[in-house]
Amino acid sequence: MNDNNILKGGAGTALLILSALIFLGSLVVALGNLGSQGHASFNTSSALPWGQPIATYLYFALASSGLGLLASLPLVFGFKQYYPVAKRCVFLAFIILISGMTVLALELGNVFRMLWAIPLNLQIQSAMFWMGVFYALDLLFLLWKFGKLDAGEWDSKTSKQVGIASFIGVLLASGNLALIFGMMSMRPFWFDGLLPIYFYFTGVTSGMAALVFFVYLAHGFNRDKMHPAMQSLMTGALPKMFAALIGGTLLFIAARAITGLYSNNPEINIVWTDYLFASGLYHLSLWVGLLLPFVLMLNGKLRNQVNVQLLVSVLVFLGLFAERFYFVVGGQVVPLFKGTWYPDLIAYTPSVTEWALTIMGWSLAFLLCVLGEKFLNLSAMPDAIAKQGKVHPAIA
Amino acid sequence: MAKWGMVIDLDKCTGCQACTTACAMENNTLPGESWQDVLFYHEGEYPSGQMKWLPRPCMQCEKPSCVYVCPTRATYKDESAGGIVFVDWNKCIGCKYCMIACPYGVRFYSDEKPLIEPDMRDIYPGQNKQLWSPPYQNPKEDWSRGIGIQPPGVVSKCTFCYHKVSQAPEGTVDFDEDNPAVKEYVPACVRTCAPKARYFGDLDVPESQVNQLIGDKHGVRLKDHTGNKPQVYYLGAGAAVPAFTPADKGDKS
Ligand code: SF4
Ligand code: SF4
């Protein structure tokens, strides 16, 4: 096994300390404000109860699911050229989900009560009950699958079965997460039976962005340090798929935007005209966060350059984060019955505490990732693939 | 078994907010935590511009979407209590999904920025796990039904003054504040309403005053297309809530 992982050395230690400091700093700010003011330190309100922490959780949960789905390409569907990133995908899916759940925990009013109140009351009508069930299973299967891969069990029967179970778990978890929004007919901006598909797709896109970034980070942003099989993946199937994913994401957004703009219903239409398209940040996230990366990735030469791939992964990462934010907030900005003295959209900008939670989530994910790179062998792949060096795409 | 219902006659309502005040006094709610509120709208333009208003309690829906989404059963519809929808403050985890799912916007999470300064929670800091503890408090408290002053991190809402209604003699059908025998059991908003625009009673008894009014005066439910089927009905003109139009856009119709 070649071990050119720069995070195992001093660079890793430095990053570890840096991310730990950011994590602790943001945690102290968040806990300090929550401790002194409670959730009054958020800028959410009874009229707009779900803000950036929920969007952050959503972002992480879906990126995790996306990584889980990417891992299933080789592990369940036999796309062998993806083997070199399979283990890292599973690992990232696990830690990103943990980070998201940490953010969510600090958003809830009574987090510890959840541990008994959800299982004991078995409210199976609630999508949020199922979110708890499916994400708990998802976490369990990810851990189990990682354990199998870490033990070098790529092809054993149980390993395959756990892989399939994990794949199904991911589909259920993120699909159900979509329905938490998609089933709300009283919130027409979200109400959409096909929202699970949109979440799967965009989830894989954000997972791919995270994967590309962390693969390069592990190798000091130098592709030559990678195993040949990984190199051929990063210059072959993967960037092509990344391009297709960004393109598909843009199509989804376009379809939602066109239906929204066409509709007379102000609870959908005005969200697009007066909130999303009225926001410079939304435009930025759309054109620079998604369209520009797509254009870059369309070009066969650019697509394979390390710098371009890195830039695209960062842009898509940020672009989709904004997308999640505007999705969550957009469903609530038109007041139900409130704010009628001066009828206007409900204003919301995240508070310092809410930003602290978001930064805490990001830095925690980063921290756990560096730890993983340092102490685990995330670039492992089945011996057959490793020996072969290059996997010819046709084998897949 | 009773099924409590409320009827609000918009032809009589003057929009005075006495109900809002009575509710806040009765239930010790914070400023902005208006379990009962009067909302004002304007619609159209000269010469047919209109001013409309609408008192809004929790509708105690027959099909309460808030109940269906709650992951812990903290929000529940109690058929044995006339179908009132309660929040069990011992179970609520503060996920706020119910606030997303309620089409009527009548749920409150008081851990938010204060509506007015000074912040009442700073002036009367919470004791005994309460979010705030004002010197006068309604002695009735039942956290399993969301009655009293809530602890931090939970959702609160109108309870149809269950702590009063439940004390009424068995078989009470019409809660008329002019009837000395029952006036103490009438929900605070109904009892205080000067023009007598609000009625409260049993929707399960065909002869009840609320049923008669709904039948005779064409009672309607708000946002009926949501299918939530409120147990609160509105009479008179003005029960149609205009579509949302941001203030700076005006009405182009
Ligand atoms: S009005 Fe809202 S809070 Fe009240 S029962 Fe209906 S859905 Fe629930
Ligand atoms: S905030 Fe409380 S009452 Fe509302 S859905 Fe969550 S647990 Fe249930």
Automatic annotation (TrEMBL), chain A:
It is found in: Cell membrane. InterPro entries: Electron_transfer_protein (IPR052049), NrfD-like (IPR005614). Signal peptide: none annotated. Keywords: Cell membrane, Membrane, Transmembrane, Transmembrane helix. GO terms for cellular component: plasma membrane. The chain crosses the membrane at residues 12-34, 54-77, 89-112, 124-144, 164-185, 197-221, 242-263, 275-298, 310-335, 355-372. Its main location: membrane. It is a multi-pass membrane protein. Pfam families: NrfD (PF03916). Belongs to the NrfD family. This is NrfD protein. It comes from Nitrincola lacisaponensis.
From TrEMBL, chain B:
Keywords: 4Fe-4S, Iron, Iron-sulfur, Metal-binding. SUPFAM superfamilies: 4Fe-4S ferredoxins (SSF54862). Residues 4-33, 49-80, 83-112 form the 4Fe-4S ferredoxin-type domain. The keyword Iron-sulfur applies. CDD domains: PsrB. It holds the Pfam family Fer4_11. One of its GO terms (molecular function) is 4 iron, 4 sulfur cluster binding. The keyword Transmembrane does not apply. This is Fe-S-cluster-containing hydrogenase components 1.
